[in-house]
Amino acid sequence: MAFTQQEKQVLSNYFTNTDEHIFALVNLPEVIKGTLISRYSRSNKDMRRLFLDEFYTHENLKDVLNVGGETRGSTQALRLSKAEDFYERILLGFGDDSVAELGGAHVGIEQISMLAAKELEERRIGLSPLEVSSRYVYLDQKPGGHYRYYRDPNVMASSYGMDYVRACDGLFSAYSRLVRELQKPLAELYPGDMTDTAYRFSIRAKACDIARNLLPLASYTRMGIFGNGRAFEYLLLNLSSHRLCEMRKIGRGLERNLKPVIPAFIKRVNGEKGDAFRQYRGSREADLEKWAGCVADNVTRGGSHPKERVCVRLVDYDRDAEEKILSALLFSHSSLSYRTCKSIVSKLSEKERKKVWTVCVGHRKTRHHKPPREFEDADFSFEVTADWGVYKDLQRHRLLTRHRQIFTNNLGYRIPEELEQSSLRDIYVSAQEQAAEVYDRIASEMPDEAQYIVTHGALNRFYMRMNLREAVHLTELRSTPQGHPWYREVAQEIAREITKVMPVLGPLVFPFVDYQKYHLERLSAFQKLLKKAERKGVTVFAE
Q1: Are 487 and 510 in contact (CB under 8 A)?
Q2: Of 214, 222, 259, 358, which is most buried by a Cβ count within 10 Å?
Q3: What does the radius of gyration of the chain's CA atoms come to, in whole angstroms?
Q4: Would the CATH topology of 106-299+415-456 be identical to that of 311-405+460-526?
Q5: E-assigned strands of 8-80?
Q6: pLDDT digits (tens, 9 = 90+) for 481-516
Q7: Residue 427: what pLDDT?
Q8: What is the pLDDT of residue 298?
């Protein structure tokens, strides 16, 4: 599409180029970007021509685009005064909510509990969260003389308020001692050169790993999130109907700060749609919990909470997984019908099937070479009992279907093996026991709020359903040497469980699952990072 010199001058303010087939949109409000792309999907015009003909000259957008007074890169020219109305007109024309997926926003959220962070990260589609790591930084600061953790107003106003504070303070006090005093015995247990920066920070990271099992879910964290408008709308709807007041408060804060950026995309949160959603969710959860409570009471009445052990149970899987995947592979690489493919595969000998598997995955040289999409045709379901820290890391896999129970301290807690022979073991156990005792008291009246005193090391149950392709990704990524040893155990066991029921998959499909055990798991990774940093002349480790 040819543009006049004057048109090019206008377009250069809003597009990265005026003469190539690939370009990016710049200096436009998110709502206008989304509306432009939506309109573009039903137009026979080039996007830049469409912008000139229908957007730049539109009466409603003159103030937004500061027509006639553009300065390249100027944010002063980009006002939202009439953009929302323009978006509404387009949305009414299309009746398509997907318009809201074409604009997005970056937000920062600070001084929220780790429990709240996990709730935000439960929204799998359309949001990309990144949370500060508790494995590399100390979290025992006391600004204003207080440890940094959330004090739920309902708990603090109850008769348990002081118990809650004492238990959380006890956990942080024990954490503070362990994270610093453990480094010397760890250096003795795993000897090395303390003048070596990579080794020194490996020891520090190991101490953080062990000590963080004492951190309660009330611990403050911070995070950044990028998301599209539709995902933020759904997030806000869920937050506005949440039982915990912290979540509702975060929702109000997000809405307040997203309004200047993507106002039209979140407009319905407090409208008729929002009210209907809150009523639906509240009624659904109340009725389901009433039913589950009656059923569970009949099973557990009169008994105490048995202490669990870490375990990974394969509870369900596709018995015809191999046939499904091979049939899909044949279908994708032929012109045969699926029924014909399935019939052919059913008659293949074991030797012939193994040959297909070898051809399919034998070309993989690293874990970054993903298996083909046909691996998504077979599902495996696992019930996992593991510490909360493991759940925290595995939750980040957004392709999983996850179900979790309310977080508790009822099933016991893990004791790191490095503490078993240490004089610091009693400090660790005492803090965990005190937290479990206070949890029981609070949970008797406020089970949702009691989650704040659940520790990272507390055992909890969760359920994961994944297809084989995701299983390969998860087990190979989470078993790498630098991974946390406790989630490495879970990843290794998932691979073993799948291999038990489908022996042909073992060495062929999971070639990069690392079953070795490492002590200073991040030492090698830190050494490589340090070498790269030295070449670039940058500092990557801060004392």
Answers
A1: no
A2: 214
A3: 27
A4: no
A5: none
A6: 989 999 999 999 999 999 999 888 777 889 999 999
A7: 96
A8: 64
Task: Calculate mean pLDDT across residues 418-433.
Answer: 93
* DSSP state string for 388-426: HHHHHHHTT-TTSEEEEPPP-STT-B---HHHHTSTTHH
CB burial of 234-243 (b: ≥16 within 10 Å; e: otherwise) equals bbbbbbbbbe
Integer Cα distance of 310 and 433 in angstroms? 18
Contact 112, 150 (CB under 8 A): yes
* First vs last C-alpha separation in the chain: 56
The matching CATH number, chosen from 3.90.1300.10, 3.20.20.70, 3.30.1360.170, 3.40.50.720, for 311-405+460-526 is 3.30.1360.170
pLDDT digits (tens, 9 = 90+) for 331-373: 999 999 999 999 999 999 999 999 999 999 888 999 999 999 9
Rounded mean pLDDT, 25-36: 79
pLDDT at 474: 96
Tell me phi and psi for residue 272, to 5 degrees.
-60, -40
More confident residue, 137 or 319: 319
Q: Rounded CA gap, 535 and 532, in Å?
A: 5
Cα–Cα distance, 272 to 80 (Å, whole number) = 24
Give the tokens for residue 244.
């915990």
Of the candidates 213, 157, 216, the one whose C-alpha atom is nearest the C-alpha of residue 445 is 157
Q: Which residues contact 29 (CB under 8 A, 6 or more apart)?
A: 64, 78, 80, 83, 103, 261
What are the extents of the domains in the chain?
5-102, 106-299+415-456, 311-405+460-526
Contact 460, 224 (CB under 8 A): no
